[in-house]
Structure prediction request, 424 residues.
Amino acid sequence: MSIRQLIFIAALVSPLAGWAQQSTPAPAALTLAQTLAAARDNSDVALARHALAAARSDILSADHAPAPVLSAKTASIDLQNGIGGGNLLTRKRIDKSIGIDWTWERGNKRALRTLAAQRNADAAQADVNEVQVQQLQAALAAYYDLLAAQQRARETAEMERSAKELARLAQRRVQAGDLSVQDAARTSIEAERARADTQTALLDKENAALALAQVIGRGVGLEASEADWPTLSDPNGPGGDLAAWVEARADVRAATARVQAAQAALDHASALRKADWTVGASYDHFPGTSNRLVELRVSVPLQWGYRYEGEIGRAQAEYTQAQDTLEKTRRLAQLDLQHLQQAAAGTAQRSASFDNGILPRARQVAQSAELAYAKGATSLTDLLDARRTLRATALEALSARLEHAKALGAWQLRTQPQTLSVAP
Prediction:
């Protein structure tokens, strides 16, 4: 075997094994479970929880009767003849009175008002759950983007090392008169392109880490754990009861609760036609007439010319709007789940085709080209083409793996969050 064959068998075949290996993650790498736990309590979720606290306070505001009114007065003060002598409270001729009035709500207004507030609080709770799901989806996508960026940086770094080695050996062969200067220049160009690809991959990795830090509220310099890549799911796609998952979604539950709140508000508006009575009593003290006088009174508003048509009309319109919103939310939720289901199935098939067929064949072709070039059976052009094909295929396989991980994770967060160690 010639020196040329020994050099290229030792130096050009070894990078293929490096491309197939994956480095061990650092012990301090952030796991997917930790990422999702941080996303459940980020700033956006905190804002939604504040809105929930305000909605729950509305229940306390609604669930109470009108406060009684205490009144005191003095009357029958005779400015012409005077009020007489003696103590102001006991002897002077002044009619003094103290009383209390209370509004009697009729038509079950308090219960209806409280029911509307409770349903709005239920909707706010569902809004919190929906915001959590959205933040979990964003965190999961950012986590896998970082994981893919890390692997892409390693792949390009290994390709750069291999290209540099090829360029170095080419220069040695030029000095030995075994290779043309033009072919050596081509290897140098390939090495520079590989170095540029590595720099781009490192920048993408930094950007992915910053995007993840923004979602989960952590510091910069994050690293994702390689153990969190999902296994390939059934290529036929996940199954299950789509209709049940639609009704279980937080956005659908929020819209349903708002319909119930609007119905209670409509009933409350209709109950306004049943007038509230104001009842009261007073204790009077009028020296010279009597020291113990009692007044009883009832006030009833007369609904002449207006029967709360405006309030009822507005409540009816808001109820119809809530119903339309619920139907729209259900429809969009079903379409979203169908899209997620199809995406999980499609990306699983694409990722499986790369892992089980395309990428192994590309590695085999590159290895054959390396051996053939070492034996002088093929040209440098064919070798570089085989390397470029392997590089492009490896990156496409990584992209397919990333798409599958994000699609499967989004589907699981909407239907089976317990599979990702996320409490429903």
